[in-house]
Structures are given as structure tokens and as C-alpha cells.
Automatic annotation (TrEMBL):
Belongs to the succinate dehydrogenase/fumarate reductase iron-sulfur protein family. This is succinate dehydrogenase. Its EC number is 1.3.5.1. PANTHER family: SUCCINATE DEHYDROGENASE [UBIQUINONE] IRON-SULFUR SUBUNIT, MITOCHONDRIAL (PTHR11921:SF29), SUCCINATE DEHYDROGENASE IRON-SULFUR PROTEIN (PTHR11921). Signal peptide: none annotated. It comes from the Bacteria. The keyword Acyltransferase does not apply. One of its GO terms (biological process) is respiratory electron transport chain. It comes from Melghiribacillus thermohalophilus. Keywords: 2Fe-2S, 3Fe-4S, 4Fe-4S, Iron, Iron-sulfur, Metal-binding, Oxidoreductase, Tricarboxylic acid cycle. The keyword Transferase does not apply. It is an enzyme of class 1 (oxidoreductase). Residues 146-174 form the 4Fe-4S ferredoxin-type domain. Gene3D superfamilies: 3.10.20.30, Alpha-helical ferredoxin.
């Protein structure tokens, strides 16, 4: 039934970080249950554009192929999402693929997400441990807190929420929704809470909470359905408490 059927992709390409971008069209054979990744792999197998000209294979990033690693994020028909879960049958043709514009382009559809990873370093998005030896069982987390913390832990640093956020751009140093949500996650952990004050002071400064415009694009675009705006609202409340504590010189935990 699909014999002779083709899929048309219009891809925004760029040979390097400082190169001029251009578009190239490809027609590839259709197969059932194709996703965007399999379409790109077909182009890589036979890099011939719609004009019949031999060209270079399209470059993109991928890892898990099951929406866990976040590497294959790109703009698909104008929306940031994962290429591995974007099914050809559910996309309007021609399918337009572009790199995420929030991050610098490395080549073609691959971008440098260092901005996001640097923000995670700024907010100490990890659980500190003292040494590598066995520390024994850690403090227990209440079940009610564990349930919502688990939802925040689903973040795969794909960068889609930063791409969707109008406040994350080349003229702003806003760290974005994902790092903010991770602050809430690690502040909730019994051991991670040791750095709570430092994290809060970081996001209360330049590029932090005050730069959020509450557009709510992030929560609508997140492929994992993480309640990002809920996290930001909770952090705003904690920031108010922290500012009072700092003003009165109190370091007790809330």
C-alpha cells in the first residue's frame, strides 16, 4: 500500500558554527512506523537531495532513541520536540526540520547545549557526598514529597523548554525553566538541602527567577510533562522566605 510513496523533508543546514545556513530538500521512500530519526538515517544512507544531487549526510545527535537522553531535540514543523518520538504519519508534509535557535549551532541540526549545562553547574544540581566510600543508608524522604520529586527527576536536559521560552535568548542570561526546576528537586532532597541557601541565592540573582516572564510555554512543550511552572511558583515563594531570612540574618531551615 505504501509502495512508491515518499516523504519530503526540508532541512535547515549549516556546515559549521560560523557558516551561513541554507535549506535542502530531500525525498525519501516511505515506510510504516517511521519516525524523524529513521528518515534522517535514510538520508545518511543515501545522501542525495530532491534535485538528484549528491550531498553531505545531514548531521544530528541521537542516543537512546526512546526519549530518555534528550540528544535529538530539534524544531520539527516549527515546534521543539524529540525526533525519536516524532512519527512521520502524524506530521504535516513537507516536514521542516531546523536546529533549536536558543543554542549555538554546531552543524546542521546539532546544537551546543552548554548554556543549559553551565546553568545546572551554577545551581549545584547534584547531591553532594563526602568521599566515595560507603556512607550507609541516607535520610528517608517522606512519600508525599518523593512522589512529586520523582516527576521533576524525569528531566532529560533536552533543552526543549529553553527553546520554547521567549525569555531564553542571546540577549538574556536567564538560566531557564529546567535548571530552576532542578533547584526545587535538589532542595527537596534531605542531603541536597545542605546547599539550599546557596542555590536560592543563585536563582535570586541575575538570570534567575526575576527573568521568568511566566509565558508558560515551557510546561506546554516539555516532552516529559514536568510541572515546570509549579516548580517556578514554589521557588518564588521560597525566595520570598529566603529574602526575609537573609534580611534578619537567620540561617534556620524552613
Amino acid at each position: 500500500m505504501s509502495e512508491g510513496k515518499t516523504v519530503t523533508l526540508i532541512i535547515k543546514r549549516q556546515d559549521g558554527p560560523d557558516s551561513t545556513s541554507y535549506t535542502e530538500e530531500f525525498n525519501i521512500p516511505y515506510r510504516e512506523n517511521m519516525n524523524v530519526i529513521s528518515a534522517l538515517m535514510e538520508i545518511r544512507r543515501n545522501p542525495v537531495n530532491a534535485k538528484g544531487e549528491k550531498t553531505t549526510p545531514v548531521y544530528w545527535e541521537m542516543g537512546c532513541l526512546e526519549e530518555v537522553c534528550g540528544a535529538c531535540s530539534m524544531n520539527i514543523n516549527g515546534k521543539p520536540r524529540q525526533a525519536c518520538t516524532a512519527l512521520i504519519d502524524q506530521l504535516e508534509q513537507p516536514i521542516r526540520l531546523e536546529p533549536m535557535s536558543t543554542f549555538p549551532v554546531v552543524r546542521d541540526l546539532a546544537v551546543d547545549r552548554s548554556r543549559m549545562f553551565d546553568s545546572l553547574k551554577r545551581v549545584k544540581a547534584w547531591i553532594p557526598i563526602d568521599g566515595t566510600y560507603d556512607l550507609g543508608p541516607g535520610p528517608r524522604m517522606p512519600e508525599t514529597k518523593r512522589q512529586w520529586a520523582y516527576e521533576l527527576s524525569k528531566c532529560m536536559t533536552c533543552g526543549v523548554c529553553l527553546e520554547a521560552c521567549p525569555n531564553v535568548n542571546s540577549k538574556s542570561n536567564f538560566i531557564g525553566p529546567a535548571p530552576l526546576s532542578q533547584v526545587r528537586l535538589f532542595n527537596a532532597h534531605p542531603t541536597g538541602a545542605y546547599h539550599k541557601k546557596e542555590r536560592m541565592e543563585t536563582i535570586m540573582g541575575d538570570g534567575g527567577l526575576a527573568n521568568c516572564g511566566n509565558s508558560q510555554n515551557c510546561v506546554q512543550s516539555c516532552p516529559k510533562g514536568i510541572p515546570l511552572t509549579t516548580s517556578i511558583a514554589a521557588l518564588n515563594r521560597e525566595a520570598t522566605v529566603q529574602s526575609f531570612k537573609s534580611f534578619f540574618g537567620s540561617d534556620y531551615n524552613v
